[in-house]
Amino acid sequence: GAGVSQSPSNKVTEKGKDVELRCDPISGHTALYWYRQSLGQGLEFLIYFQGNSAPDKSGLPSDRFSAERTGGSVSTLTIQRTQQEDSAVYLCASSLGTTTEYFGPGTRLTVT
Amino acid sequence: QKEVEQDPGPLSVPEGAIVSLNCTYSNSAFQYFMWYRQYSRKGPELLMYTYSSGNKEDGRFTAQVDKSSKYISLFIRDSQPSDSATYLCAMSLVGQKLVFGQGTRLTINP
To answer: Are B86 and B25 in contact (CB under 8 A)?
Structure first.
């Protein structure tokens, strides 16, 4: 079946602009996660949605970052007033429950 | 101190060698243990999944969990150049999100 998909695959934006990154999880998966991965670094947890519960936003680095998940499916991560340090690969994952996570291919964001 | 510690490497070995990748952790309540493999410019993919202590084998890969030492390992036998990737360990409590190690970059030289 279809895996986790993310769009766009690459995004180049100017410093100060807003960007939206999209994640389509595996159908039926109740949990959705966003991570950030800088070059050569590990996964930095950003935010986690589980069903209808309030999202765990504990990993968001600043109030410029926000995410929403509509209808328990598609999620959008928004970064406002982008900075150069926001350049990274943004990964989305989904799971049925909270154990095995299945990752998408990521969106490579470059802020110039 | 991080909850999960993993040597970032890089680790470079000749083809055919046995590779040992390791993680230590601090939270003795972790129950689920996973290894993910990430190829360059791709998302991580689940490689091995273990619940609680013991060994699990899948082809050339063996995952080992030692809860008494809070230590997990991934062994790769007869390593191939196609095994060159970053390997991330991950673990979780029951009903909680995964906690990832930093990842170890592995290169298998032909």
So the answer is: no
- Select from B93, B98, B106 the residue whose CB has the most chain A CBs within 10 Å, as the one to mutate to test that interface: B98
Structure-block tokens of residue A98: 């909270």
Structure-token pair, residue A100:
């095995």
Do A45 and B97 make contact, defined as CB atoms within 8 angstroms? yes
pLDDT in tens, chain A (112 residues): 589 999 999 999 999 999 999 999 999 998 999 999 988 778 899 999 988 889 999 999 999 999 999 887 999 999 999 999 999 999 999 998 756 789 999 999 999 9
A37 three-class SS: strand
CA distance B75 to B86: 14
